[in-house]
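User: Quick sanity check before I run a bigger batch. Here is a single chain. Can you write out its predicted 3D structure?
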Amino acid sequence: MGDLYAWLVSFFFLIALLVVVVYQLMCLADLEFDYINPYDSSSRINRVILPEFIAQGVLCIFYLATGHWFMLLLSLPYLCYNVRLYLRMQHLVDVTEIFNLLNWEKKQRLFKLFYLIFLLFLSIFWMILTALDDHD
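Assistant: Done. Predicted structure follows.
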């Protein structure tokens, strides 16, 4: 039963990460269609980048602590990419360069979105499998 709760926690972490990435994509789309100015868009995105990185790190530590090695191995590339961005000081969106990098920023977040959706489906699969094993 404890393993089922671990998958539920993982599910909610992934949902939270998905919400953050979708929020960033919405801010970029609003900027692209001139609904908000570059300063507001970049400040909104920059406000949620570090919580996204921290949540991904906590999720990887959670997978490590619960012994879900396969999910940990699948989550590590995303974490390593985030750490690399942070160490190179490329994690924040620059107000002056946001229009030049708009397509790149959107592609980056779309890739993150699809990667997180893949992890979410795997988490749901393992949660259902665990629930069926606990039921027997």
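The radius of gyration is 17 Å.

User: Great, the batch can go ahead then.
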